[in-house]
Design brief:
single chain; mainly alpha; two-stranded antiparallel sheet; 4 strands; globular
């Protein structure tokens, strides 16, 4: 998700620049002009910056949850289902073993009834709210595992992530 956020930020910056260029006359509007401005983007530099963000957000195992990448060390310091899937797609471009372990880490939070929760919490990050104590999902007799999790899910993007990773492997890039 961070990769997508970085790309979105880049496109928004390009849109702002295009909007400033378009406003040379009052009431002028050039729809989607920024889409044509990406030719000047250094894609290799963008990919390296995205990789640096992913590497910077990598979190070591904490005794309850295996190593994984978080969307943001400060704002979202836990593992989120959607983000883990999109992170795995991005990481698979340069480390397929770690990409698979990203998905395995999020599946550590899978409940006994099969639900994959939207957050797998790291107990080392206690400042995030609502945290695992708020959700009260890890009570005696609950179907939830350790590490603690939220009590809701997100749309199933796991299959899409696996498909993207497998397609890359069939092309011999993994």
């Amino acid at each position: 998700m961070i990769v997508l956020s970085g790309l979105l930020a880049l496109l928004l910056a390009a849109a702002a620049t295009s909007a400033a260029d378009a406003n040379t006359t009052e009431n002028s509007f050039v729809p989607h002009k920024f889409r044509n401005d990406i030719a000047s983007v250094d894609i290799y530099s963008l990919v390296e910056r995205a990789r640096d963000v992913l590497e910077g957000n990598f979190v070591s195992a904490d005794g309850h949850h295996q190593a994984h990448t978080v969307p943001s060390r400060t704002l979202y310091p836990n593992q989120w289902f959607w983000d883990a899937c999109f992170i795995a797609i991005g990481v698979s471009r340069y480390n397929s073993t770690r990409a698979i372990s990203e998905l395995q880490a999020v599946l550590e939070g899978q409940w006994k009834d099969g639900m994959i929760p939207h957050i797998v919490f790291d107990k080392q990050f206690t400042h995030y709210f609502p945290n695992w104590q708020f959700w009260e999902t890890n009570v005696t007799g609950s179907p939830t595992p350790d590490p603690p999790t939220s009590g809701i899910t997100q749309p199933p993007v796991l299959g899409m992530a696996l498909r993207a990773m497998m397609r890359k492997c069939r092309l011999g890039i993994c």
